[in-house]
Input
Amino acid sequence: MEGREEGEIKILLVEDTEDDILIVERALKKGMLRSRLFVARDGEEALDFLYNRGDYADEKRYPKPDIILLDLRLPKLDGIDVLKRIRSDEKLKDIPVVVFTSSDRDVDIIKTYEDGVRGYIVKSAFIQKTVKMEGLLDAIISFIRR
Output
């Protein structure tokens, strides 16, 4: 993938809650995974990043991610709509998307899998495991390799 350093995984985290962003950042820093984390705080910003629009126009500084961690409850444009746009675009549809959300509702889980997500992480379960540094890095690697 263009702009990727050897062994470096580019992750786009689409999340509007600062505490959740910090938890993911800490988990990645403590892990042995070489990664570069980009953060979009709403659905529109995520699409600007993915399409290299506006502040994200420089494709070398803002390359296509290897994986997207996507919250469902976002301002401006929700995660379901972002996911649908990603899956309908030939240039983006093969990027693995993992839902990272507080919703454990069956309807959300079923809907996102129907829309082509590679995984679904419920934040409360993730946060409990992250304290012990289990789960996130293995999940990211396994979702990319699928």
Notes: The radius of gyration is 14 Å. The longest helix spans residues 18-30.
